[in-house]
Amino acid sequence: PTEAVQHYTTALTTLEKMKTTPENKQKQLKTADRIAYMYYITGEWNMSMNHIILVGKLAKETKNQLMLAESYRNIGMICVIRGERDKAMENLHNALRISKEINDERGIAETQYCIGTEYWQSGEINEAMNVLNKSLAQALKIDDKGLISKMTMEFGYIHFLRGQYEDSSELMKRGLNIAESIGDKYEMARAYHHIGDIYGYGLGDLDTAIDWYDRCIEISEKIGFFRNLGRALCDIALCYVKKGAYPKAEKYIHEVSIIFEKIGEKRMIGWYQCVYGVLYKGKKEWEKSQENFEKGIDILKKIESRVALAYALFEFGKMYKEKGDKEKAREQFKRSIEFWEELGNKVKVEEVKKEMKELG
Fold first, then answer.
1. Rounded to an integer, what distance in angstroms lies between the CA atom of residue 188 and that of residue 222?
2. SS3 of 244, please?
3. Hey, how many other C-beta atoms are within 10 angstroms of the C-beta on 62?
């Protein structure tokens, strides 16, 4: 991606110096769009956003509604990642409106997928399912294998959030098979990560989770998919914490912190702080553990990341339980249950209740 960015940037600079013609403007538009995409993949959101805004400007000048809709959609997705919900929804709905006006069926499906992603990340599962069903129907209508793969895995992740791990695994692997059949390495990387989550966060099979995360890390490094790399590193670190391999886990979390502080993804900054909390809990360094949990949970509350909060509060409660502070443990467990009930995850509700019962 880095070499490609340099190539396209040089090309864009050359085009900007040339005589302004409609053809030249279209070339600038396509080149700026490629640069924006490359920066998006590497997680350089500010640079990506700058070029997306340029795409939008050029799209308006050339009256290219297709690219204008895409620029709104891409701004929306960066806002989703940054935890800026209002801006995300405003831009995504602008993209959806334009895609409908020009009858761009792929654009409609892609934008609905993005809106569905924002809904489930905010814990609004029913709303997510409604929008994603529309998106999948559209993708099937136009037989877009890439979108069908993404959508299938998105449904798989929603089943995962609800504690329906067998259904989740089946859908994830079905989406992975489609991605492999069309050679989509980015979706393959996402699938490896999500399947790792099923085993790690869902079934508690840490060794199998590590195998899938390792696959994700390997392919994500090769293709420069740094956001996905950071997420897999964070989750594999948690597996190693739970296995008691603290030095290895700490090394991974440090790498995660570098990636996400650079990217500026608030959800993952909050979550890696909580993983530090679990690490220090394991080492019985209670003050450090509490400090990191509180820091992480505060970030997750501000961006209303209900899914991450459900996990974080559960782990925070376990820290207080091991420390011997039953009252504070019970308080965190109760808050965690509220989020799991909102998500409809009966398995996790029972898990937390079991921990509470052991408090006496």
1. 12
2. coil
3. 16
Q: Which domains does the chain have, with CATH numbers?
A: 278-360 (1.25.40.10)
> Taking a C-beta distance cutoff of 8 angstroms, is the pair 76, 114 a contact?
yes
94-137 pLDDT, tens digit each: 999 999 999 999 999 999 999 999 998 888 999 999 999 999 99
**Tokens representing 184?**
């989509």
Helices (H) and strands (E) in the chain, counts: 18, 0
| Both structure tokens of 215 | 């696959």
**Whether the model pTM is above 0.85:** yes
Is the torsion defined by CA of 38, 42, 43, 45 positive or negative?
negative
Give pLDDT tens digits for 170-224.
Answer: 999 999 999 999 999 999 999 999 999 999 999 999 999 999 999 999 999 999 8
| CA quadruple 306, 307, 310, 312: dihedral sign | negative
Say if CB 136 and CB 171 are below 8 A apart: no
| CA-based nearest residue to 272, from 248, 243, 237 | 237
DSSP notation for 13-81: HHHHHSPP-HHHHHHHHHHHHHHHHHHHHHT-HHHHHHHHHHHHHHHHHTT-HHHHHHHHHHHHHHHHH
